[in-house]
Each structure stands twice: as structure tokens, then as C-alpha cells.
Amino acid sequence: MLVTLNKIMEIAEERKIAVGAFNTPNLESLRAVIEAAEELKLPVIIDFAQCHEPWIPLSVIGPIMVEEAKKAEVPVCVHLDHGETLEYLQQALDLGFTSIMYDGSVLPYEENLANTKKAVEMAAEKGASVEAELGSMGRRESGAGDNTGAEDETKIYTDPELAAVFVEASGIDALACSFGTTHGIYLTEPKLDFDVVRNVRRLTGNIPVVMHGGSGVSKEDYRKAIEAGVRKVNYFTYMDKAGGKGASEYLNSLKEGEPLFFSSLSMAAAKAMKENVKEAMRQFALC
């Protein structure tokens, strides 16, 4: 069933768990995520990030995401992840997305706040929820960036006191906080500051905190983050990597002279992604 992010966050808060938000920029990943959620009987968030536009246009995959959510046996929020322009946010809302994220984290504070307020007004007209970001995880949502293993100096940790002002002034429903995670592949073990999460929750009246860069975090750190107040975990890179591994294993299993069919290759990738998503969902649900 199609629901808003607010509804998903209510479920997460009641159960004291986090709900996975998985990017689904193709049919294989979309079906993998929804089937995993249905098998585990867990709510889920399906994402499309603006930086994925070159892979498949939002205008193509967006309506399919909405229809699949409506048919699902579990609560599903259709969420625009890392929307960089108000025009793109409006496109998602017009397609029926029930939640949008405005990402103005690289902008000056006042500009980020002003644009976030506009996003909240736009979403209210459609009955949708809004997530925003304060601080910076460093790399893009696609995971692109420095692969030398050096510390990412573009990270800006969220200031809990500023977060309280931002949340009150903007009227958002969830806040993506920077507390040590990074988009993409982890090159070194992340050092997470859970006090940032706890203090943001305390000073904002327990707004749902969102963890971006959730792939590659240890089970123990997931547990600590959720206990601190994380209620939404964005997860894509390692799921995508699992699909690549599944496709590679299928290729290697072919006997000499055996024909290769793309449909079989995509099914192998989808199966691998589904198993990876199920494992992540179990971790987020603390089960």
C-alpha cells in the first residue's frame, strides 16, 4: 500500500526500529526491494535520487514505482532522494511521490532553509512528507568520489543546536544528519558520533533522524544508531554491488558454448539484490 514517509516513521518510532530506504533506479532493484519487504512483512521506502537521472529518467521509472507501491502487501513510501532543485521536487510530487528530500546541504544555511521551506509548502499541497539535510556526508549519493582511502574532508557534522532551529523554522518531517557516515564504498572503518543523533533528537522533540551512507556500516553500529534515534537508513551501494556480483557469478557458471541471455543475467542480479536487501532489512528492524 502506498503511504507517506510520516506514516512509515510512525511505525518505526512505535517499534523503535529503522526502516530501510533503497534506491530503485531499475525494474530489477524495484522488484527485489518490494518482494523482500513483503516476504519479511516489513514497511519499506523506495527511493529515486536525482543523480540517477542519467541511468533512467524519473518520468519513466517514477510512475512504475508508484504503481508497484500501491499493489504491495506492506506499507511502501515512494521517496525522492537528494532532490537538488525545486523543479525536480515538483516533478516527483506530480508523479505521485509521497515524500521528497530537498538536499541543500552544500548551500549556505539561509539558502538551504529558504528552499526547504518552499519544498515543505509544495509537499503540503500534495499531502506528502519532506526530509531535508543539515551537514554533509561528503560524497554524492551515487558513491562517486575519492577512492584513495584518504579521509573525506568535505564532511560537515550536523550541529544539534542549529538543527533544532532549522527543524522548527522549516517544518520538515525528517532530518538527514551527518554523524560520520559516507556515501558509497567505505574505504576505512567509519567513526560514528552517536551523540549527534541523540542530541538532535533531544533538541528537536524527537524528529526522525535519517542515516545516509548506510551501506557498509557494522551490525553493532547499526544497533547503536537505531538506539540513538535513527529511524530511516538509506542503503544502495552494497545492494547494487551484490547485484553485480550475482550477475558475475551467473556469467562464470555458463559452460563453454552455452548462450548468454540478458533476461537470465538480470534475474540473477535481482535475486542477489533481494537477498542483500533482506539482510539489511533484518538489521534495521533489529531482528
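the 2nd protein, sequnce then structure:
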Amino acid sequence: MLFPEEQELIDRIGVALMQRRERMGTAESCTGGLIAAACTSLSGSSQWFERGVVTYSNESKIELLGVPPALIEQHGSVSGEVALQMARGLLSHAPIDWALSVTGIAGPTGGSSEKPVGTVYLALLHGSAAPKVWRELFPGDRHAVRTATMRAGLMALCEALEDKDQ
């Protein structure tokens, strides 16, 4: 169940995408499809939400999104480089205008001193516009990290859609 502020974001995203006659998709790792689920919680979202791909394993990132294995080896699956390639792969394989991707460490295990639990990388792509790739460090347990990641991705997408220059 979404909180009212999350539902408002989804409503705004849906309206903006329909006005622009554009569609979106998600490539999710640590959120396991939470962003896609949030988007599809709105009746009629099939008019603007095309697909969500959960690529939890490295193999799925490689097979489904075309992330080069060398990129994962060099930077790790939790990196801005991999988040960007996940979004690029989705954009190139799906009939969408916007791609939002996330990869991170939700915990409670899997963190390191370099990438502690709560480290998340997100990427947002729209056609030939410059990509937006950023790192977040969210506090809390697994549920809190996943929920905060979902919110951050939705907020960034909403802001980009409402930016008149996009």
C-alpha cells in the first residue's frame, strides 16, 4: 500500500506521461519491482507504464539488459556505471521513452566499508537527453532502504517529467 504522497507522485507521473504521449519502464534490482508495482497501482497505468524488469542477479543484468560482464567485474553490480547500463539496456530493448533503473544494497547483509548497506545507485534516461545517475545512502532496515529507493526514483522521474526542458 502506498502512502498519500507516493500516490500523488504516481498520479503526477501518469498525467505528465499521458500529456507527453510517452511511456516508461523500470529496471530494478534491490527494489525487486517496487517501483513498477507502485506505478501499476494506478488504474489506467497501462496507458503510460510499459514494463518493469527485475534483474536481481548479475546474470539477469547481463542477459536481459545487456550489461557487459566486464563492467560488473570492474565496478561491481552496485555502481553508477551498472545502473546507467541497466537503464540504457531497457531503453534499447523496450518501446519506451523513459527508463528508470536502480541497483543497491538493501541489507542487512552484503555491505562493505566502500559500499555500506543502504548504498543505492539510480539512473534515469530519456531519449537522447543527458542521463541522470546518482548515488544515495539510505538509513534503516531492508524495508526502509527499498522504500526510500522507490520514493527517490519516483521523485526524480516526476521532477524530470515536469521540467519543461526535457
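The chain has a mean pLDDT of 96. Residues 142-162 form the longest helix (21 residues).
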